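Spend some time on this chain, tokens included, and walk me through the fold:

. . .
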Amino acid sequence: MSKKKLYIVIVYRWGDRGLHSYFVGVFAKKQKAIDEAEKEECYRGGSKYQAEIIETEINISCAGIDYEFKTIKDLKG
């Protein structure tokens, strides 16, 4: 049985993880996450904030295990 996938959207000012960032949402459908990431980037002026989308599984922790999150949409640059 396959595990349930989740898509996490976070936006970063100027695409820099060291600057201001905020959580946009968690989505059950990849296309919904992509649409919401694009919508948020446009709402924030097109280039001031860049979105990253990470795919993970429900009830998974990276603490103490060898688990790599899959990047669906990486930061530009």
Observations:
- Residues 5-73 form one domain.
